[in-house]
Amino acid sequence: MSDASARLRRKFWRFKAGRSRRSVAGQVLLLQVALVVLLVVCGVIALVLQSEHDTSTEAKRRSIAVAQTFAHSPGVVQALHTPKPSAVLQPLTEAARKSAGVDFIVVMDTKGIRYTHPLPSKIGHRFVGQIGPSLAGKVYTEEVHGPLGHEEQATVPIYDDHGKIIALVSAGLKVKNVTSEVDRQLPIILAAGAGALVASTGGTALVARRLRRQTHSLAPDEMTRMYEHHDTVLHSVREGVIIVGDDGQLLLVNDEARRLLELPTDAEGCKVLELPGLDPATADLLASGRDASDEVHFAGGRLLAVNQRPTDRVGGPRGTVATLRDCTELQAVSGRAEVTRERLELLYDAGLGIGSSLDVVRTADELARVAVPRFADFVTLDLADAVLHGEEPAPTATDMRRVAVSGIRDDHPLYEKGRLIDFLPSTPQARGYRAGRSELVSDLSALDGWTEQDPERARQILDYGIHSLIAAPIQARGIVLGMANFWRSKREPFDAEDLSLAEELVARAAVSIDNARRYTREHALAVTLQRSLLPRALPAQSALDVAYRYLPAQSGVSGDWFDVIPLPGSRVALAVGDVVGHGLHAAATMGRLRTAVHNFSTLDLPPDELLSHLDDLVGRIDQDEACAETAGEIVGATCVYAIYDPVTRRCVMARAGHLAPAVVAPDGSAGFPDLPAGPPLGLGGMPFQSAEFELPEGSQLVLYTDGLVEDRSRDLDVGMELLRRSLAGHPDRPPEESCRAVLEDLLPERPADDVALLIARTRALPADRVADWDVPRDPAAVSGMRAAVSEKLAEWGLSELGFGMELVLSELITNAIRYGSDPIHVRLIHDRTLICEVADGSSTSPHLRYAATTDEGGRGLFLVAQLAERWGTRYTPQGKVIWAELAVPDLGEFGDLLAD
């Protein structure tokens, strides 16, 4: 009965819809026009009511204001005390009424008898309205029917000078005058409503016009019939239909597609990639929008043939429509599809899980783990031992290192991880390695030759239940790197299809293993190069107690470097630099800069001049490498260079784009000296400035690269403050312990950048180990200086060096007197060597030459070079210093002091 009534209702509405000749757009237009008219009418009514309310409120407000104003007007109280108040107040109220725009102002006594009224005949009569509230001191408003008609009035009291109410005054408007305000506003309201109606109608017409285009001017019965046909066909066909929008949103899905893909009832409107239970491959295809023809996909345990085409080829909206056919009824294909699905999933997982790092052993272990237990019960991987070191493998399967072992159990009899194996030529591994082809052994017990490798272990393998083997070569770029061995014990033996799957798995891992091998080789070469370019040991010197740390970054080698360079006069130079970038190019550039610093330091240049020469060198390197092959490898470098003199305890420093060194005073306080910051090396055009400080004995000078204090998780200022705190408060801590403490306090477990740290504790040369004299510019002074020097050498226990030192000193002083200028100064330093320095005020430099047999002079510096271990010249702001060093046979007590 209910079905019959439902059919009758559908026929009735279809009949009603069929009688209407208007299109859907026309009906919508009429409906919207009616709604707009209704809204306008309601708006007009509301505006009229609101206008009347506002006008009435304004009338009351004006009445109160006029009444209160008149009640407080000057002369009103005096008029009330006159014998005839009406004669005085009537003209006043009329004038006030006209000027205020109200209809009446009435003054009355406390009994309500009028003194004034617009109609003189009403004077002396009783006031129409309530006067009780006003007699109580209140302002009272009301609506009454008075002599002038229907009125809005306000009554207020009039007080005398003593605050007593002596009269009342009332002012107001007639109601008809109030409503006349509404009448004046009503045309404006109607005009606004008409305008709104016109605008709304126009907008509605535009919307209806667009709707007419979209519905193609179809009548309601035609659209109903089209929808019924579309719905019947869409949900009746035995083929899934899915429409996906351009943004990947599921717009439409029929019943068959919902069944095939096991989609929820509320799937429409969701993103395809977010639908629960949908196969990732199928979801990717539906969301991709690409064309597809009979692509086979697995979804919900079914094998589906998918066809997909775009929907905008005929001018429709952007998106795709896909059709799905269920092919699982083909029993012959069903079993193969399941196997294929598992293998595809295995290959997919292998592609994601293998090669996550550039580590050979880890990549091999990833291959072993992904194949167990889904493909094999046990997997072992053997790589040529040379591959682990980044080298080329041998042509035979000897020196094979087992790098990965994985299985369903741990008590297997296979060779353990880390074992070095030499496979015999009769084994499947050796044959496969040599030929570069996979070996399939379906039955190990029937194979001859493989047991010769290790008969006892082969028997254990068979007794354990392992019965089948695939030995696949791991090869890339035509080179066999090792063998991957797949073993089975709990499932069916391997077949030819398993062999192809094993080769596919190994091929995916082989590329990653080869990349890891090549990276290992390049990394080892870069590290070796970098290590060879850094100092292997610190030179012997007595000015500083030095400790250092160099930590390469985890991402590869970089260009950080440091150096400790002994200089003449017991001085020591400290240098720390950083070349921007990583890799071989940065390491090679670092070596060039370190060599340049060594060469420039032999010239004994001040720090600022040395950095200027280094800046020119970097600029030339940039020009030489500014070509297409080295684009992006232009050098960028920073450097800090310091010279410490243990005699004067003065330290001269300069920096080029580098962070300022830290200084720890003997009392434990730490800080960063005010050192001018020069530009990075290679920019050119900007001079470098140096600064000179006095460092008390026991001070610590800390030089470092930015990798120590810079980190992505903190600002540079925070890192500098952490360094200062780590150094402060430990005046007696040795430099070696300071290096360890600083690295522990500042560096994470895996630093992202190279770190070079150099900490030097200053020493002062004892005053009794230094002697100096001022020498007059007189040749006769030479003999006196020889005697003074001999006496000092005897005091130091170095009398045996007296003859050689006298000859050297005589020659240097004579040259200074003859070719130099005042002042002339001689200094003798007893350090690890015996150092003689002769300073004068000229800048002319002597040169060693070989005198001819007929020359009378020119042999002095030759004698100096023969007697001294080293000699040279350095320039100072006051002139130059010529120095020579003589070896000390036995340091004695001073040597013990240096050792301590």
Kindly list the characteristics that best describe this protein:
single chain; 900 residues; alpha+beta; 6-stranded mixed sheet; 23 helices; flat; disordered C terminus
Topology summary:
Layout lengths: L1 H18 L4 H48 L4 H5 L4 H16 L3 E5 L23 H4 L4 E7 L2 E11 L5 E10 H41 L4 H17 L3 E6 L4 E4 L1 H7 L18 H9 L3 E8 L2 E9 L8 E8 L4 H23 L6 H12 L6 E7 H4 L11 E8 L12 E2 L6 H8 L3 E3 L13 H10 L3 E9 L2 E10 L7 H38 L10 E8 L6 E9 L5 E11 L1 H19 L4 H19 L11 E9 L4 E7 L5 E3 L5 E2 L5 E2 L11 E5 L5 E5 L11 H12 L7 H12 L8 E8 L7 E6 L5 H16 L5 H18 L4 E7 L2 E8 L19 H8 L2 E7 L2 E9 L5 H7 L1
Parallel strand pairs: 20-23
Antiparallel strand pairs: 1-4, 2-3, 3-4, 5-6, 5-9, 7-8, 8-9, 10-11, 10-15, 11-12, 13-14, 14-15, 16-26, 17-18, 18-19, 19-20, 20-24, 21-22, 21-25, 25-26, 27-28, 28-29, 29-31, 30-31
Helix pairs in contact: 2-6, 10-11, 10-15, 11-15, 15-16, 16-17, 18-19, 20-21, 21-22
Largest sheet: 6 strands, antiparallel
The total beta strand count reads 31
Backbone CA Rg: 53 Å
Mean pLDDT: 80
Silhouette: flat
> Structural class of the secondary elements?
alpha+beta
Q: In percent, how helical is the residue content?
A: 40-55%
